[in-house]
Amino acid sequence: MLSYGGFKHQLSVVEKLYQCSRTTNTDLWYKLRQAVMGNSCSTNLGIPPGKGPNQVGCTDLMVDHTVQGSFFRLYYPCVESTISEMPCWIPSKEYFNGLADFMKINRSLSEKIFNYLYGSFKIPAALDAPFKPNGKYPVIIFSHGLGAFRTLYSAICAEIASQGFIVAAVEHRDGSSSATFYFQEKPIEEEKDQAASKNTLTTQENLEVVWMYYKALQQGESEFPLRNKQVKQRADECIRALDILIQINSGSSVTNVLQSQFDWTTLENTMDMCRTAIMGHSFGGATVIESLCKESKFKCGIALDSWMFPLDEEIFPRVKQPILFINSERFQWVGNIIRMRKLDSTTIPRKMITIRSEHLLNFWVKFEAKTEN
């Protein structure tokens, strides 16, 4: 295991090697640092466990195997156990490849480096652990940023779940994820050779996995139409995730395309659907605003370093819920702040907090410290 100083040195070497740009690539490195290092005072590498009173479990749910289906990781308070498996922070090599594509670096070399730096890191949550019933938990739908995926913000999601929330981290299929996947039906001739090509991701033998990678902006392509289309799809995916949880909470059954030992029936009547929030980072912050406009079942929104560019400003007056903007000083610029301020209201609770002189490395740590004071 690398020492703390050794890890920072290795990361700095890789950053210099690939000459990460000031925008998207650097943001991705900060996300990686944030999730891996967590509390900067710790001498242990890895994702820090939640500080709340609850042990955290996690499981994946995919409803409908097609690209139009819903896919998210659920973090939840679980029954305490010492034998449950902790899943890998980066789920598979395809996500390493997606990160490489997003950062415009060589796949084969970057996979070795990413695997060396992060391959052994586990999410501090017990995979498929039994759910811990304790009244009704509030619900948060989490939307990741550009180039991320459902597990990259595990430090934040696990911390929130440890405090007594149910968190569904959506993996978006709009082309903004570094990587994601869905399934398609195998041709009949391929189905005859099941033994040689058994799919370990799904229980349905007639399906094969299809990987989707980050959709880069093409040369000469205008960015706003692409991002505006994506943010609308992202909001629809977040709303769909909430609707699935409402269905589960009501006792209706759902079919999980993925292999899982988790018993979804234990979630019946355990979620407080009067306390539902949408939360997201960067592009996910824009998704928060779009989702609030589209769906009144979200009672409030939390936007972390919200990237306001993809949004149509005409939707702002239609957003009626409270919003908390939490910004880091490094990310902000005048135009972005001006667009946030257009959501100010004299009648609806709206608040903006900016964390001064801090990078995303310490984003959650500083927010936690502020709320305690």
Automatic annotation (TrEMBL):
<keyword id="KW-0378">Hydrolase</keyword>
<keyword id="KW-0442">Lipid degradation</keyword>
<dbReference type="GO" id="GO:0016042">
    <property type="term" value="P:lipid catabolic process"/>
</dbReference>
<dbReference type="Pfam" id="PF03403">
    <property type="entry name" value="PAF-AH_p_II"/>
</dbReference>
<dbReference type="GO" id="GO:0003847">
    <property type="term" value="F:1-alkyl-2-acetylglycerophosphocholine esterase activity"/>
</dbReference>
<protein>
    <recommendedName>
        <fullName>Platelet-activating factor acetylhydrolase</fullName>
        <ecNumber>3.1.1.47</ecNumber>
    </recommendedName>
</protein>
<dbReference type="InterPro" id="IPR029058">
    <property type="entry name" value="AB_hydrolase_fold"/>
</dbReference>
<keyword id="KW-0443">Lipid metabolism</keyword>
<dbReference type="InterPro" id="IPR016715">
    <property type="entry name" value="PAF_acetylhydro_eukaryote"/>
</dbReference>
